[in-house]
Amino acid sequence: MVALTIDGRKVEAGAGSTVLDAALAAGIEIPRLCHHPELTAWGGCRLCLVEVEGQQAPVPSCGLAAAAGMVVITHSEQLEAHRREVLDLLLSDHPLNCVICEKAGACDLQRYAYEFGLSESSHEKEIARKLYQDENAFLVRDHQYCILCTRCVRVCEEIVGASAIEVAQRGFEAFVATPFDAPLVETPCTFCGNCVQVCPTAALVPVDRIGKGREWDLTRTRTVCPYCGTGCGIEVATRGGEIVSVSGYGAPANGEFLCTKGRFGLGFVGHPDRLRRPLIRRDLAYSLGLIDTPPPAALGRSPLGRSPAAGETHVEVDWEIALDLVADRLAAVVKESGPDAFAGIGSALCTNEDNYIFQKLVRGVIGTNNVDLCARV
Amino acid sequence: MPSAASGTTARPRKTVYLGDPLAEPPPPELLAILERHRGRGDVLVTVLQQIQAQYGYLPERSVRYASRELGIPLARLYGVATFYNQFRFTPPGRIQLQVCCGTACHVGGAPAIVERLKAHLQIAENQTTPDGIFTLQTVFCVGCCSLAPVVIASGAAHGRMTPGGAESLVRDLGAAEEGRP
Amino acid sequence: MRSTVKVGTSTCGLATGAEATFRALQEAVSETGLAVSTQRTGCLGACHREPLVEIVVDGAHVLYGPVTADRARPLLEGHFTLHGAPPPPEDWVVSRTPDRRDYAFFAPQVKVTTANCGVIDPLSLEDYLAAGGYEGLRRALAMSPEAVVAAVTDGRLRGRGGAGYPTGLKWKICRSQPDPLKYLVCNADEGDPGAFMDRTLIEGDPHRVLEGMIIAAHGIGARWGYAYVRAEYPLAVKHLEAAIAQARDAGYLGTDILGSGLDFDVIVKEGAGAFVCGEETALMHSIEGRRGTPRMRPPYPAASGLWGHPTNINNVESYASVPSIMTGGAEWFSSLGTSESGGTKTFALAGAIQRTGLVEVPIGVSLRQVIFDVGGGIRDGHSFKAVQIGGPSGGCLPECLLDTPVDYGPLRATGAIMGSGGMVVVDDTTCMVDLARYFLSFTQDESCGKCIPCRIGTRKMLGILTKITRGEGDTADLDRLQQVAHTIHTTSLCGLGQTAPNPVLTTLRYFRDEYAAHIHDRHCPAGTCTALR
Amino acid sequence: MTNSIREIRDTDCILVIGSNTGEAHPVISYEVVRATRRGATLIVIDPRKISLTRHAALHLRPAPGTDHALYLGMLNAIVTRGWLDREFVGGRTEGFEALAAHLEAWAPEVAAAACGVPAEQIVEAARLYALGLRRTAAEGGESAPPRGASTILYGMGITERSNGTELVKTLANLAMVTGQIGRPSTGVNPLRGQVNVQGGCDMGCLPNVYPGYQQVADPAVRAKFARAWAQRQSQAGRELTMPEAPGLTFIEMIRAAADGRIRAMYIMGQNLMMTNPDATLMERAMRSLEFLVVQEIFLTETAQLAHVVLPAASFAEKSGTFTNTERRMQLIRPFARPPGEARPDWAILCEVGRRLGRRLRRPLRWAYGSAAEVMREVAALCSIFGGITHERLETVGLQWPCPSPEHPGTLFLHAEQFSRGRGRFHATSPAPPFEPTDDAYPLVLSTGRILYHYNGGPMTRRAAPLDWREPRAYAEIHPDDAARAGVRDGQACLVSSRRGSIRVQARVGGVVPPGMIYVPFHFREAAANLLTHADGLDAGAKTPEFKFAAVRLERLRAERSGAAGGSHPPPE
Fold first, then answer.
1. Which of A99, B36, C376, D101 is paired with D540 by a 20 to 30 Å CA distance?
2. What pTM, to 2 d.p., does this model score?
3. ipTM, interface predicted TM-score of the complex
4. Torsion angle, CA of A12/A18/A20/A23, rounded to 10 degrees?
């Protein structure tokens, strides 16, 4: 730990932390656009410049190692004037479409413009980047909103390891490009969307959230991704129960990063194919007199390689009928052949509570240890 | 613009499997260049320079081969290639004209030379004449400031240039080049 | 009788036809049957008289110029009075003394780093050795590394790239790093428009640069060196690579150099056309095969440079000064300059003066001496208006500041900088607003785009300046210029951005009336701005 | 996992074995990428050129099924060249002498001959792993640094094998002989493939243990659960007895169902028609059942065969907990309403339990107000979960063991000692895959996952972007094998085993080595598990050998680009 002074306050900073880290840990907010705690310091936005005693020029706090005895000022008239000028410059290169922008309310540039009272740029408006690329089903790249903070480039290289994108050209012409401006699908992009996650503006937006609501319309729920065993924490943004987007939030297993399935793969939840009522197979329903139509030949065909039409193999029934039927038939088998004529298979996709109750049912009610899980497969 | 206003983004067509565009091994002259640089950390720019020296420009396939063979992300190669003025992705003319626009040349009248050559060749900067003979570029200082203004044609420097002198230089070079097959 | 005919075939010479002159001389020699050897040399610096030919007969020197190809035979026949040919006309003669001080251009100069340029054959190791080459290395290897660093410190050598950081201190910091793998980089990415010192040095005397690097490697403990040479300098690359090959063969590079146990070798990397790569961290990114964007410092390269290892970066002229410190001694070297900076500085003198070329003067002489004594003042009857010093990072100084000494501190006080040595003199036909606009268009074009103030700010400044040169400016534009310039200067990531406003700020300071004329009178006093004619 | 996901980034050397981490566990691969960017050495052991090899210092490609020899060669090199951790071996393990004697026969050259990986690569991998050398240290070759931290990440490429248990023991040998376990950023870390496969096991969905790995064979354990579950305390001792004999494992159940010994089955959230080997056998088994209940969110291929299908709420519509591969229990929260009348699984099961209990006269207590109440019961009955409640999980995930409300959870296992005390070395020997290749079926088929899909595909194939990106079944084929069969890149081909055949798109390239075909198993229109076999189960874990089946590759006459499909009988 090192002790330093920030804005007149004594602050403790952990080993290896920067002045920015120390300030944020102490609750002192410093404006910043290119900084991201999980990525290497970039130092391009120049908003986090601070004054350090003994140094002539202001220094970017994101790249400045906190040292013992350092005296730092994060807000001064000079610094605010420079930050304002930098934002002014940036706004001249950014469409101010906040009233219809998807990112409104969650856009860092918009926030700082608000804080500095900048409604527009004092400079001539000129946006070099014109591309709008959406040749994929995952995310839209609207370059004119890009502020070249390169968080997306860094997350792609440093975290994901895909290096699908890189800044191309230079100076005012620079933009974040795929190799030879090919569609993302022809690059090593894994569509993990972590670039979308770290983008501070509307340059990267999930295709599926466009037109689905503004930030303040959304309800956010933290839960766990239902796919592989990593157990990533996800934050699901919904509007009226419909999923709008998924993001990471800083959970223990995954931090704020996700993969393509976790971020773009929850479409199944609201899918029309979801089962809504209990079903009984047509031959059984027929034999029970629940329906009049005899079972179709399709019941005898393999389910692999084809998808049945709705209601082709089963008919919907009430819960009471289904539950009693299950209880009757299972009880009959156990009474006739003993509990070991039954087997139960739990689920690696269900919760601990579900599985606990499942094995309780098998062991406690049926009285067999014939219970297993797809853990072995 | 990603907004509700324009929100009817059509779902893109289904992806098709593109196959491996580099299924064939690299051509021998390219392989020779790449082999020289395998396993080194300081070669990226050098490799691009040598590819450009080989072909006169950076053919996209060659860059893709370099990425695969040397294990360098293609995006990085592309980012680097577009960063530096030296690299180009299209074949240049047979004669590359570079008008020096360094300080001494600028105050000595380089802008007028550029304008004259543009008018004479009827192309803009960084373009190649339709007959493929001339490519016109401006460069910032070739280090011949004491002889400003300077025009470089196919690597040879011509000092103390004037608009008229530059035009006749280009005329002569063009005439000589046209005679060739 | 030992006679030699030397032709300066550096890039500047070649641009005026020196190659044709050389061939014509060779032909003439063989046809006339003269017992004369022809030799290529580097650049003597007197570029305004290129192509230069020096004829040395038994220690008697005569320097001729310009000698175009058609003058080759008459010159040869005249000089050696063959078949009763008349002596070459007097206006062909530049100088007749071995030190050439009879020519005003050379008289005030003190040649240390450029001593061999134009004198020896740059592709000949023997020539270099004959001129005392690698003696500095021998002496350095006999010293402890600490003593080498101390000598450089005592010589008060400051970084010739422009920033003027004390070289000895830089070496010391790098040397003290615990990491056993250290690198050394020679920055020959001379990107300033209007500068050609490094080109001339490498083309004319590559071994000297190399020797400086090897001495530095000994002092610092570096294992590998990179020479990062600008892509626009193919001849410099060729000469340096040839010198490296010769040095390797002769045991000055490689393992166990001269039996001292020092292992060191140099790899030449060509730049690829990016001015910003003159910035040390951008240069290192370029060597590492990345986009040439600078990064935040600290950590400085001395602590964490190439691939994270300690790396010492100096420019060509700094390294070229080192052998002389070893042979001449720190005391002698420091005595050449001022109390703050030792040694000499080379300048690329260009523009509207009589005698352009590469000059080397002791640090501390005045701008006036350089421009008027060496350069001979303004040509064609025009009057001096300004000297642009330090390239796009520098500033434009008016006549009243001509007595400023060329030294790091005093120049910085004027708003310009020492820079790497570009010095372009402009006369009354040059519009200062247009010149400022020119430099902004350069920096705007060369901005890497990483930081916002430089990427967008220079673009906006350029826009305002263009407006003014079109006669569309207003008074508020000048305040806006100054305001944006202040933010760019204070908040930019690297030196390119931080110094980009300098040409604008100095012209605003010293030539404000020209801006006023453009804005209020819609008039360009120099007649440069075409929209206002 | 013995250690935690977050520890990977601080590792010095990472051994990735039989895990296509970048596609099956992308977020864990991010940690590997971070580690390599911090200078860690990555060694990939896999016949396939998986995405992580881009970042690897070494990629060892043993011929399919021969990797066991490679590990033995590494062990031999470690022992004979003195790279072992004598202190750890002496203080924490037993049986080393026997192992060392056994390893004498496995010089790296011998191993190289067996697996096709050059001996020097085997030795180098052994050195890097044993000493935990970072990239810089490995290259510099200067003074030896103190032993770094090495970790092993392995996946189904190890476990879905007929000798999987032996292989895991061999990897444990590697970790123990080098002391690369019981410290931060070390360990032997299986990457579990499904979101709650860890939790399902933890909760006792295994034939031999109750929740918390309490043995079925232990009368005290049985009595404890009987007492706790009984509806009325007075009945406990008298009437409710718990079954004593361990139950059947999964494949044993399937076989028993196929030959009539199992007559009824209850399957919760498991599409075994797609995800289990030998789909033909699976279907026969399912059709043989007198009564099959499937509890699901979609009418999966398995559910289509069920007599009764009960509609379940998905993870999006219920509360509960998942336990991830690093033993971390985390809370899930509902963000949507269940469709129609669908209900949470546990609630359906309680209904079934209540009704069935009445009919079988085994009334248990089923009155849970919420999933949190269920977890309270779990905590009360299992000491390793004793300190875990939904309330605690509101703010943070907890890694078990977590025995008390104050316990912070356990970051990594085996810090002081192994579960059994001293770690035991096992002398293991390679065994060939169960089904050898022959002239009729000359290629090795390996099945597995791809990035964009999951298991049998009921979820991912209904997630529009994912199915857009990877819409059809394919097979990765080496150019040599493709040329031999006359199969061209991008066109349809036929892959057949003794059990069935499927039509898939050929993707010809360098991902697989010659002699190997890789087919993802997510596509019902070309179900890879029609080809796999359910024979030759691993003796210990009873896991089927998904990674090896003998197949042949054929060109399709009437080629339709992109066509894919499957059929049961192999075509003539």
1. D101
2. 0.94
3. 0.93
4. 0
